[in-house]
Design goal:
single chain, about 280 residues, alpha/beta, Rossmann fold, two-stranded parallel ribbon, 10 helices, 10 strands
């Protein structure tokens, strides 16, 4: 989802030349392939990841090879050419037991294999690219295309009278299109020397639960939100534990001269009712 939106945003910038590589075209676990792909690029944005959270719990070594070890290979390839690297990470590096938004420098304590693997990737960027590495943590991503919570809710709405949705996990629904725009702006700021390396939080402002998000989706599409019923996480046991509180703070954007992402209500409405070009 995010890679597609990134290429769309970059296409609107005629002065920026972008190369997009699919999984079939570039194996990020292959150091030699990465070393051949990076030269000629000033910034690398890594949107490739093992995103199957429950699968990672069953195959942690394989997931970490993509989310952790491969990021180290990519960071070394960037270091060899002087390229900046923007690595996408996750709220899952935190324990999810907080009550106020996690700042960028909050202690990490992942509760599942996916989070551990992504944290390994963060540490690889910090180790290999201390002056040219950027980590952008995001969460609850959605887009009009691809498999995500918003598209799933709209599909299920066609087949079911009522939907049971988890109401005890809190986070920030984040539009891939809006995040892609901020990533490109961050890349430009990095090249101009305005954005310091390190961790940034790329999530929408505000917060809600999966239940609240589902109701908002229904309302925006003219469906009855009362068809959504709140339930606890225990109704949907999963192999990988999920953080209960995944709200991130956005302090570092201002230091780079960039605005944080807008409120999730606004961006969701924009995604479901796009303004004509």
């Amino acid at each position: 989802m995010l890679g597609r939106e990134l290429l769309s945003v970059l296409a609107a910038h005629p002065r920026l030349a972008a190369t997009g590589a699919t999984r079939a075209e570039l194996d990020i676990t292959d150091p030699a392939a990465l070393a051949a792909a990076v030269p000629g690029h000033h910034v690398v944005i890594n949107a490739a990841a093992w995103t199957d959270v429950d699968g990672a719990e069953r195959q942690e070594a394989a997931a970490t090879a993509v989310n952790g070890t491969a990021v180290g290979h990519l960071a070394r390839a960037c270091a060899g050419t002087g390229a900046r690297l923007i690595q996408l990470s996750t709220d899952y590096v935190f324990a999810g037991t907080g009550r106020v938004p996690y700042p960028e420098d909050a202690p990490t304590a992942p509760v599942n294999a996916y989070g551990r693997g992504k944290l390994a990737g963060e540490r690889a960027v910090a180790r290999e690219l201390p002056a040219a590495g950027y980590v952008v943590r995001t969460a609850w991503l959605y887009a009009p295309h691809g498999r995500n919570f918003v598209t799933t809710v709209l599909r299920l709405a066609q087949d079911r009278d009522r939907l049971d949705v988890v109401a005890d996990q809190t986070g920030q629904p984040t539009s891939c299109a809006v995040l892609a725009d901020r990533l490109v702006r961050l890349a430009e700021a990095a090249l101009a020397g305005r954005a310091a390396p390190g961790v940034y939080h790329g999530t929408a402002a505000g917060q809600t639960t999966w239940y609240g998000l589902a109701r908002a989706v229904f309302a925006l599409r003219g469906l009855d939100p009362e068809r959504i019923r709140p339930v606890g996480s225990d109704r949907f046991p999963r192999p990988a534990p999920r953080p209960r509180y995944s709200v991130l703070g956005h302090r570092r954007w201002a230091a780079a001269g960039l605005a944080p992402l807008p409120d999730w209500h606004h961006t969701l409405a924009e995604a479901l009712h796009p303004v004509p070009a």
